Each structure stands twice: as structure tokens, then as C-alpha cells.
Amino acid sequence: MRIAIVTESFLPSLNGVTTSVCRVLDCLRRRGHEAVVVAPSPAPREYHGFPVHGVASVPVRQFQVGLPTREIEATLADFAPDVVHVASPFFLGARGLLAARALDIPAVALYQTDMASYVLQHGGAAGRPAARATWRYLRWVHSLADLTLAPSSAALDDLHRNGIGDTGLWGRGVDTALFHPGWRDDAGCRALRRSLAPRGETVVGYVGRLAPEKEVERLRALLDLPGVKVAITGDGPSRPSLQALLPGATFLGRREGDDLARAYAACDVFVHTGTHETFGQTLQEAAATGLPVVAPRRGGPVDLVDHGRTGLLFDPDDADDLRRHVETLTVADDAWQRRAVMGEAALTHVAGRSWLRLVDDLIGHYAALARVPVA
């Protein structure tokens, strides 16, 4: 098959949208399909042999936002894909969907970003009407797609509640070749662990973008737990304010590849803080590393954490609930045993979620839309 991917985010930006697009492309290459990528500039000229067309963009809060220019339609017409895959459509993606419709090419939209919640959170007094307007716009955008795929049951419910139909569920894979418990025996990981916990403390880790919508400030409740150290991996616009707010935490900055895997493996417990996640890829990466996960009982994490077995889900409306749950895995007398049992269960829970299997499911959606047989 020939697949054109129009994405709101791509390399060198690192986030959930970029990661999923890259993993889809990796698997399309392994399965022998052809692809082209349309993404905001600056972008690499190719990715693993697939051409990448960078379009003009403007920076917004450290993101490059692609401009919906006519060159998208020209790229699609020249490539003549069987299907157009639009990742997290908003501006660039909306133009991609319009171009696909004009060229009579079936299109699948992947809902990945809860934009309305972000608008509500950052909009101040105008937040609620702005969020409603965002959903009206998203209804129009997704009406241009033949199929919208959501990554979790919570995200699917949001779409249905806001009048978006023609939907399906498509999760995300996890790279178990990169993220695994074996990193704990790596010399670099052991050195990192010694720097984070020089007296053998229990390390509670967070990995992700440092931005207001991630609610990383919740970690403040953990700073005075006895024998606990907090490690934060990632970067973003909130880093200076978070460093001031969380003086006892260690900030490891942005990490990729093996260094990111070492950062997970140097921890004992993984904590996710955001309540607006449509999925929560870092939760899967932590689980693949054998870590119990503590996350909000809201949004994507509800599908990913089996409460009491692979981790714990806290009530985000109870200011003390996060701390109570983390205490059971760090301070309680049997904390190390609970961590071991939950970590092993978490590892088993994600064992079958390979990217190749998930992308095979996605290819099935492509083929159904394009009405072509799957090779």
C-alpha cells in the first residue's frame, strides 16, 4: 500500500505524536509499504528512506505549528496514496483532510491530543466558551475523515460525547527492545542510580514534557516523604518554574534512546501526573521497564493501569490521594514487596503490545478504507 502521513508534529520535536508517527513508519517499512510524510519545518528530508516534506511553520510554546498551505494537496497528488493518515489533526491536519477529500482519497484521523481540555485549562475566564468552540472546530475537522481512531476508551467517550462519529479504538505499542528491566544491570544506569539515591533512597520518577497541562507540580506532595527521592526527566516551558517549586527534585533534562531507558530503570516507582492524557505512552514504557505506575484515575491511564495489580490510580480531585498511594509503594513496611509484585505484573501486562502488532491492526483499517487486500 501507499500511505501519506500528515502530522502536526515530527522530528526534531519529541512528543507522543512524533513518537507514534515514527513507530508507524518503522513498521510500515518492515511490512514493505510505501509512505510519504508531510510535517512542520524544520524536519529531516527523510526518515528511514521515506521522504519527508516540511511545510512552513511558526513556533508556539516550543512547538512548530505547520501552516495549512496548498503544497499539501500538491504533495498528495504527486504521491497518489491509497490512504491518508492524519496524526492529531488541527491546522495542518485539517488541510490534509481537505486535500484528501478533494482528491477522493480515503482518510483516517488519529485523535491524540485533548486540545479542548488544554484550551479550558489555559483560557482563564474565557476557557469554557473557548473549549466549546474548540470542540465545534474539531467536529468539523473530523467530519472530513472517513474514520477517527482514538487511543483509549476515555478518549473515545470524549469523541462520542462531543458529537464525533465514525470512530474506532486503536491503542499504541511499546518498544520492549528498548525499555526493559535489564537496564538495571547497565553500568551507566547504576551510576545514575547512585547519583539520584546516594544513601539507597527509593526513587520516584516522572518522564514527560514539562508544561502546565502535565500538572507536574503535583509531585510537590512527595518531596518530604522519608527515604524518597524524586527524579524528573524531560524538558519544556515549565521547567524553570518547576525547578523553583520542587527544590528537592533532581531534573535530568531531555533524554532519548538508551539514556531515556536508563532514566526509567534507575527508578523504583513511576508517577504520572496529568489528567488530560488521551493515552499515556510513558506509562507503558515504565511498565515495560518493570515499574509499578501511579497515575490519575482519569483519561488514558484508566485503560493502562490495573489498579492494585500493575499499579495504583489516585483521585486527582483529592489533594492527598497521590501521596497516600506513593507511600504504600515507598514508605510502608512491605513497600519493596508490593513494588516487586506490581512491577512484574506491569511487565506481563504490556508484553503483547508490540508496535508491529498494533500497526498491523492499523494497516487493516487502511485496507478497509482503501478497499485493497492486505499483503
UniProtKB/TrEMBL annotation:
Keywords: Glycosyltransferase, Transferase. Residues 15-177 form the Glycosyltransferase subfamily 4-like N-terminal domain. GO terms for molecular function: hexosyltransferase activity. Residues 195-346 form the Glycosyl transferase family domain. GO terms for biological process: carbohydrate derivative biosynthetic process. The keyword Transferase applies. PANTHER family: SULFOQUINOVOSYL TRANSFERASE SQD2. This is D-inositol 3-phosphate glycosyltransferase. It comes from Mobilicoccus pelagius NBRC 104925. The lineage of its organism: Bacteria, Bacillati, Actinomycetota, Actinomycetes, Micrococcales.
